[in-house]
Specification:
With about 425 residues, this protein is an alpha/beta fold. It is built from 19 helices and 15 strands. It folds into 2 domains: about 170 residues, 3-Layer(aba) Sandwich (D-Maltodextrin-Binding Protein, domain 2), CATH 3.40.190; about 200 residues, D-Maltodextrin-Binding Protein, domain 2 (3-Layer(aba) Sandwich), CATH 3.40.190. A 5-stranded mixed β-sheet has the order 2-1-3-13-6, with helices on one face. Helix 2 links the parallel strand 1 and strand 2. Helix 2 packs across helix 14, helix 2 packs across helix 15 and helix 10 runs antiparallel to helix 12. The longest helix has 26 residues. It is globular. The structure holds beta-D-glucopyranose. The site of beta-D-glucopyranose (BGC) has 10 residues, from loops. The site of beta-D-glucopyranose has 10 residues, from loops.
């Protein structure tokens, strides 16, 4: 198929005709090694508990870029999948269209309001109705480090952005790749928001990327972020276009690259490959952002259905996702921390424990901010505007001044 989007659409239409009432069609983008192992846990428990068939509708593509396009076509054609991986503002958008179904009875029976932190509960409710369930909290502002590469380069684990680039220089000198980075817009935007947090702090991050305040968007800190991004991009592989994030993680794992900026689903890849934190890899907060936390909550939303069977299966799936034993098994593999805070943390590794500690700490300060690059902070139009400008900047010699101007303009247009 020459046109990948057309291919995806065709596949999705063909797919529709094969869904039976006893099936539950689930659209998600968890296809990398670690992601597939995590979602396999859910498939297994769902099959055991419901006796129904999980109709897997997976659309590869990090951050759900492709999955979201397919969802739009299917849902607007009147054939939405029963359960869909979806987050933040998009849950609100689909809720507004009247296409999501409420699972309030189940939520009430199981006392979810008491079980979940308010912010997470609010993110999966539309108009005070439970229309989705949360799996986890991913922390975005991490750097994944191969300690053997650093030792080889005689470089130290960086604690400031200046040190980060010194370490990068040393890795470059021994002929290895300082940063593994896949060439896709969402990966560029992920690094952009991580650098912005480190340089500008959480308050300005919030003003710029959540409140879309024009003054904050044109502040010296946003300019400094584009400058840092320029410096960062000088260490990347020129042939990275189209490289998936998990292939980039593999480069760090295999000692071909020293570091990767990525959310902690990257840890899921290390774990799936049998690697151990502290020994085979290190997780360090992006230097400068230690006291802050960019959060990203994965959830499944449920679409309205006329079938009683489907409704029953949707509720069964939701109940499993909210179960503490499932939250533990799933998140140990996925790299994230559980959304249900009473889940026991003993079996989690040191990176997850550090993430939980930071999550609890930052919930008492202004240090928690939602991820723009991962659909938690804004409409998909605004997110796309940021993707486009950051991608154009990283792949050209656009000045930081020009990038700031374009960013403010594109965001203004996306909100008109
Ligand atoms: C999702 C993660 C996923 C990652 C890479 C993020 O937006 O929240 O669950 O692993 O994208 O696809």
């Amino acid at each position: 198929m020459r046109n990948p989007v057309l291919g995806l659409l065709l596949w999705s239409v063909m797919h529709t005709s094969t869904v039976w009432a006893q099936d539950l069609e689930v659209l998600h983008w968890w296809t990398s090694g670690g992601e597939a192992q995590s979602v396999a846990v859910l498939k297994k428990v769902f099959k055991e508990k419901s006796g129904a068939t999980w109709k897997d509708f997976n659309i590869a593509g990090g951050a759900g870029e492709n999955a979201l396009k397919v969802l739009k076509t299917k849902a607007l054609a009147g054939h939405p999948p029963a359960a869909v991986q979806m987050k933040g503002p998009q849950i609100q958008d689909w809720g507004k269209m009247g296409l999501l179904t409420s699972i309030n009875d189940l939520a009430k029976r199981e006392q979810w309001d008491e079980k979940l932190p308010k912010e997470i509960a609010n993110a999966v409710k539309y108009n005070n109705n439970w229309v989705a369930v949360p799996f986890n909290v991913h922390r975005i502002n991490w750097v994944w480090v191969n300690p053997k590469v650093l030792a080889q380069a005689k470089a130290k684990v960086p604690t400031t952005l200046a040190e980060l680039f010194e370490t990068a220089d040393k890795i470059k000198k021994i002929g290895l790749l300082p940063f593994a980075h896949g060439g896709q817009a969402w990966q560029d935007a992920t690094v952009f928001e991580e650098l912005l947090l480190a340089i500008a702090g959480p308050d300005l991050y919030r003003k710029a990327l959540v409140q879309l305040d024009p003054k904050a968007l044109q502040s010296p800190e946003v300019k400094a972020t584009f400058e840092a991004l320029r410096q960062y991009s000088s260490y990347l592989d020129k042939n990275r276009k189209g490289l998936d994030w998990d292939k980039a993680t593999r480069l760090v794992m295999d000692g071909k690259a020293g570091m990767q900026f990525m959310g902690d689903w990257a840890k899921g890849e290390f774990i799936a490959a049998g690697k151990h934190p502290g020994k085979d890899f290190l997780c360090i907060p992006v230097p400068g952002s230690e006291d802050s936390f960019i959060y990203n909550v994965d959830s499944f939303a449920f679409f309205e259905t006329k079938s009683k069977n489907t409704k029953k299966n949707q509720e069964q799936l939701a109940a499993i996702i909210m179960d503490e034993a499932f939250q533990k098994t799933f998140n140990v593999k996925k790299g994230s921390i559980p959304a249900v805070p009473t889940t026991k943390m003993e079996d989690f590794d040191s990176c997850a424990k550090a993430s939980m500690e930071s999550f609890v700490k930052t919930s008492k300060t202004t240090g928690q901010v939602p991820s723009m690059a991962h659909q938690m902070a804004s409409s998909s139009e605004v997110m796309q505007a940021v993707y486009d400008v950051v991608e154009a900047h990283i792949n050209s010699n656009m000045s930081a001044d020009e990038a700031v101007k374009r960013l403010a303009k594109s965001i203004r247009e996306a909100t008109m």
